[in-house]
Design a protein that fits this description.
lyase, EC 4.2.1.1, 5 helices, zinc, binds zinc ion, alpha+beta, single chain, Carbonic_anhydrase_a-class, two-stranded parallel sheet, carbonate dehydratase activity, Carbonic Anhydrase II
Length: 253
Amino acid sequence: MRSAPLCLALVLAASSVAAPALAETKTAPHWSYDGKTGPEHWSTLSDAFKACGSGTSQSPIDIHPGKAAPLSKLDLHYTFGPKDIVNNGHTVQADVADGNTLTLDGKTYTLAQFHFHTPSENHIKGVAFPMEVHFVNKAADGSLAVLAVMVKRGKANPDLAALFAKTPKAGAAPAAFSDAAFDITKLLPADGKYYRFSGSLTTPPCTEGVSWLVMEKPITASEKQISAFHKFYKHNNRPLQQSTGRDITAFED
Ligand SMILES: [Zn+2]
């Protein structure tokens, strides 16, 4: 745990800079999923975290699509797997090599990392899942698109087994990862239907303007694999946020 004086120094450092584009920065003050630094307190922990309390299109949400549109498949080119795995105290995160892209409305986003939440943060029509994977994609102008995939109990997923076997202890140095058998596409459902809406980062600073793409169909993981993740994190999900007035489109057949 950080000492109190260091935490204060970090708060001061964070408030003197513009809101960072991504949740994880060296200057962010301590936050958590429980107690005095838990989600209901995030907005008070730093001026940079204000959006967590005052934002109007926050994530996650319970997805109830308001309209449907013909399926236009996501322009997704994910090929390269993780280069290292970080256990940052909030989640298990796999940093990937450059070259995985998502093109949305003519803009190209590059996959920076993917990470896990348990239970799922977003719900689909009132249903929560045991886990949710977030693929964080960033465009050259700094805008973000998060591709989310739900995980339900079922067949084992070899990618997850490989990742969780190599995950270091919380706070330890990132573990290098090179596994020729790892296939990033195995973390995506075969079915291409998805929901799209605007939201925010689900972790401080809760920055809005994030394009959310949530795959309608889940992938599976075995009970053993879900338990393996629970050894790192029992729960690391932000509670549901208001979705009132939000345009949610289902892209399906
Ligand atoms: Zn996330």
